[in-house]
TrEMBL record:
InterPro entries: Acyl_CoA_acyltransferase, Bact_Acetyltransf, DUF4081, GCN5-like_dom, GNAT_dom, UCP21603_acetyltransf
Protein name: N-acetyltransferase domain-containing protein
Keyword Nucleotidyltransferase: no
Domain of life assignment: Bacteria
N-acetyltransferase domain residues: 140-281
A molecular function (GO) term: acyltransferase activity, transferring groups other than amino-acyl groups
Keywords tagged on the record: Acyltransferase, Transferase
């Protein structure tokens, strides 16, 4: 495969071992990249995009996942600029740039003139992890969801996404795709919720996982039930489920300004390890 003057080229299946070794340098921060690599073997037809690698003296030193999300992996500022140079040779296809703050900031500064105005930028999102038991009692009513729960679960997922991202996941006729994603997570045993009177009053999902780490997304309590401690006890239950059956390290990242959520995660026992940033188009 052709390598550019910046040492960047698309990776393939023959690069899988080198890529896994690179991402394993930080297996919690890079859980998304490791999950995608292990489930696709870096086959473009399964990736729905590409993974770029940067090589110095023949050694893979950094990578970048380029699909719906552009995600830098173990990238220094120089690596991020090299990936940005390649990115600017094509029109923007990604909906987000997300990952460790320093690399995302360099990437965005490099492509911003070409890729247009983003819908929103969220800088300095605390990346949190817990690798021991929760510090609080868990909610025994939080359980894995099933397909039979979809009539109540799906509207809760739409409400969470719309509140968090600022647009509905059903926008532009995408409801079938989003419903399929919610169903997929449920089928994998990666969706957890507490129901009361046929209504979701707490929920969270595993977004991606390896045998070492799992990343949580979609934590939500309906607005009229907030302030009751449902999120603290619910997250403790999710941590227990995930650590017992999926992975021992549980991570997530949260908006810096969301003090209520940050208090919840601190109470459960999460600690900050680094900062992420997200640029959304």
């Amino acid at each position: 495969m052709q390598t550019t003057r910046q040492g960047v080229r698309a990776l393939g299946t023959s690069d899988l071992d080198a890529f896994l070794a690179l991402a394993q340098q930080d297996p919690v921060v890079n859980v998304f990249a490791l999950y995608r690599a292990r489930t696709t073997s870096l086959e473009p037809r399964w990736l729905g995009g590409e993974v770029w690698g940067r090589f110095l003296d023949g050694e893979l030193v950094a990578a970048c996942h380029v699909g719906a999300n552009l995600v830098p992996i173990q990238a220094t500022a120089d690596d991020a600029r090299a990936f940005a140079e390649r990115a600017m040779t094509r029109s923007r296809s990604v909906s987000t740039i997300v990952g460790p703050h320093d690399a995302v900031q360099v990437l965005w500064n490099s492509v911003s003139q070409s890729w247009g105005r983003p819908r929103e930028i969220r800088w300095l999102q605390p990346h949190l992890v817990i690798d021991g038991p929760p510090l609080v009692m868990s909610d025994p009513l939080v359980r894995r969801t099933t397909r039979q729960d979809m009539p109540a679960l799906y509207p809760a997922c739409v409400a969470m996404y719309t509140e968090e991202v600022g647009v509905s996941p059903e926008l532009g006729g995408s409801s079938d795709l989003y419903r399929a994603r919610v169903t997929q997570l449920t089928s994998r045993g990666w969706s957890f919720a507490r129901f009361e009177g046929g209504r979701v009053i707490f929920k969270a999902e595993v977004a991606c996982a390896t045998s070492y780490a799992a990343q949580i997304q979609g934590v939500w309590v309906p607005p009229d039930r907030r302030g009751e401690g449902l999120a603290i006890a619910g997250m403790a239950a999710v941590v227990e489920h995930v650590q017992a059956e999926i992975a021992p390290h549980v991570s997530l990242y949260v908006n810096e300004w969301n003090q209520a959520a940050r208090r919840v995660y601190k109470a459960v026992g999460f600690r900050e390890t680094t900062r992420f940033s997200t640029v959304m188009f």
